[in-house]
Amino acid sequence: MSTEFDVVVDGIFRQGRHNLSVRLVAENFAPLPVWQPGAHIDVHLRAGLVRQYSLTGSNRDQQAYHICIARDAQSRGGSRYVHDTLRPGQRLKISPPRNLFPLVSAESVTLLAAGIGITPLYAMADALDAAGTPFVLHYFVKQRGDEAFLPELSRYMAQGQCKIWYSSEGNSPRSALPAAVLSHEPDRHLYVCGPAGFMQQVTQQALTYNWPAEAIHTEAFKPVQAAPILGEEGAFTVTLARSGRQCTVPAGQTIARVLQDNGIAVTLSCEMGMCGACLTRVTAGEIDHRDTVQSAAEKSGAEQHIALCCSRSKTPELVLDL
Asked: Three-state SS for 227?
């Protein structure tokens, strides 16, 4: 049974030079499902166009959800639709919030955002301030005027502050990261969100300066393209453990598509390995992981899950817990 529900676009607001924030409410202004910072929702923009957007702002506001979308020159349709077509009063279907990037209990928190990566971290900063947890938010943009939520992030916060850095003024994360990343204190956690290169650089620097891997948390907005390996596009077989049914996954086809074509229900959302909706337990075989939603520890753990929308097999057969 579908868990999607209807909302109305209650307002669209300019957030800096390239971003639009969208306020979504229930048609009768009933309270929306509770969410925690780091959560995202699936938004059905039009038939066949589903995108995932982080919830932002205060999670104490149960009357509305806020999302923020950058205009992306490489848009696959979502960014373009929001900026060019979406209008106040329009009805949309959304999913309940899912959280693959949660805040964990810590004595202090460092938040690093680049570009539209500010959306989940703004929500985290607001929640940390309300909870009395010390934090600092570092926000990197290209130039003045690019900032989203500038008035909100500039306000007084009792437990922390937001520092905005402009690469056009020589403060690029490629040249110098904040001092908070260059040393680790016990029970301090680091949250990073933005372009893949930015997150990779911050993570590598933090590890170099003795941050434990379990204290570093990242979320990607775009899939990381895996480097090709010999034979990666060869056909393989998936076996459904509960029925014994087998399907062949040819080169150029995803496991999800093959299963759907054979009448087997698969839960899909982003179809890029970013959201976790299609993660399925594998009981035998070696996975060629291509998702960005699972951590390195999860991908090498004793219990393995595969993203049916993008990952493949390194062995002739995978057995799925289906």
From this structure: coil
Please provide residue 282's backbone torsions phi and psi, each rounded to the nearest 5 degrees. Answer: -110, 130
Cβ neighbors of 106 (< 8 A, separation 6 or more) are: 133, 187, 188, 189
Which DSSP category does 224 fall into? P
Query: Among 69, 126, 67, which residue's Cα sits nearest to residue 97?
Result: 67
**Alpha helices, H only, 25-146:** 78-84, 118-131
How many Cβ atoms sit within 10 Å of the Cβ of residue 246? Answer: 12
Which DSSP symbol is given to 292? S
Say which residues have a Cβ less than 8 Å from residue 116's Cβ, sequence separation at least 6: 19, 68, 69, 70, 148, 194, 221
Q: Sign of torsion, CA 22 274 36 198?
A: negative
For residues 175 and 244, give the distance between their C-alpha atoms in angstroms, rounded to a whole number: 55
Instruction: For 156-217, give the DSSP string.
Output: --SSEEEEEEEGGGT--TTT---GGGGS--TTEEEEEES-HHHHHHHHHHHHHTT--GGGEE
Place of tokens 């453990």: 241
pLDDT value at residue 35: 98
pLDDT, tens only, 67-114: 999 998 877 789 999 999 999 999 999 999 999 899 999 999 999 999
**Measured in Å, how far apart are the chain's first and last C-alpha atoms?**
18
Q: Which pair of structure tokens corresponds to residue 229?
A: 């390996």
Q: Which residue has the tokens 């460092």?
A: 110
Cα 271 from Cα 255, distance rounded (Å):
11
Predicted TM-score (pTM) of the model is: 0.78
- The phi and psi torsions of 65 (rounded to 5 degrees) equal -105, 145
Are 88 and 38 spatial neighbours (Cβ–Cβ below 8 Å)?
Answer: no
Q: Which of 94, 114, 135 is nearest to 198 (CA)?
A: 114
* pLDDT, the chain, mean: 91
Report CA Rg, the chain: 21
> How many angstroms separate the CA atoms of 115 and 117, rounded?
5
Integer angstrom CA distances of residue 26 from 2, 7, 10, 199, 215: 17, 5, 9, 35, 36
- Do residues 128 and 103 lie in contact, with contact meaning Cβ atoms separated by under 8 Å? yes
In angstroms, the CA 157 to CA 125 distance is: 9
